Amino acid sequence: MSKIKQLVKTIWDDVFSLKGYVEGESQIEDEIRQGITFRGSQAYILVFAILVASLGLNTNSTAVIIGAMLISPLMGPIIGIGLAIGITDFDLLRRSGRNLLIAAAISVAASTVFFLISPVAEGHSELLARTQPTIYDVLIAFFGGAAGIVGMSARSKGNVVPGVAIATALMPPLCTVGYGIATWQPDYFLGASYLFIINSIFIALATYIGVKLLRFSTVKAQDPARARRVRRWVYTIAVLALLPSIYLTYTMIRQNTFELNAQRFVAREMNFSGTQVLSETATDKDGRRSLEVVLVGRLMSQDSLMAALTPRMAHYGLGGVKLTVIQGGHSVITKVSDNASVTEVFNAAQKTLQERQATIDSLQSELAGVERRDSISSVMAPELKIVFPALEDISISRNVFCNVQTGVRDTTELALVRFNRDVSDTERKKLREYIEARIQVRNVKLIFI
Q: What pTM was estimated for this model as a whole?
């Protein structure tokens, strides 16, 4: 057992020990203090950085946003707050807090003005991603702050601090706050403000813990009671900031789990022969969860389908979820492969619908012709009464004659007519010619009743 402890101690001293790798305490403090103040060039750099970040969010450009975070000087006051609490320097704490508020106000004002005059008013994905902070953002800020204080303490700085500025993403939330103000969207304003607050709090908290672990000397003539109150406030604020993110994380995980369970259910239980899933939509709104599935292909009995699927939903954690199944047209599935994408299925369905519409149009045209022929007798009756006064009844129809010897079929227009007296061959010929001209068909057969 002692050998194992010795081995662990050796590994710890060789790998994780900071002895000989960190600068002196005074040098670290001087570096942090220098980054707190926003004056002269620092103020201009901050304004230009916020404008670059706003352009990146406006155009949804990740590269531009990263560039803005690299040149942003916002990390200075936040790390200064953590250092001030750690060494109980209340003057430094006031200065750091004041400068952070000034920097945040400058950033929000610049981004608000930008989005007020920007011709693009639509929120893009990089902007929307900054309005729903979760516990993961808290962890990123905390571990980023820890990496920041360790990196600033190291003799070889490397690129730790710029990396922390990118990871914790302090600039985009302030841009989003300005966007929310400019477009008057409280969800953007509140969500992004909360993200910036938790980033600042947990970077400062990680810095405070790092300062304590590095055993920085506290300021002399400190007030122990005041120091305890400040620490109490720090922990209280950190916990209060943490609670909403925990709830948002729970909501996000719940929604993701619901969507994954819905996908598993649809993939395994709705695998029918001759039918394919066109789309699936899992919705969780105000505590009411629903799953809508659109099927194309062979039509199935809706009652039988629901009776078979509903009992299986509980096995996938979907108990109490409202299931809606919408079935599309028949035989669409035969036009696409088994591994077809949704786009291919949709295109196949569109093609099938177009073909069916063409068939419907053809049938409607044919039906119109039939209706026209069925009514032609009544339409011609007033004319025939004048031209052929002896004509009493007429019926015009299309008939198909089949030769019993050869099986050849022939379509013929047949006219059944009845006169109230005997008529000459000349009148009969004249009647045939009149009917042929009127219905625009040759070789009409007249049958006299």
A: 0.59
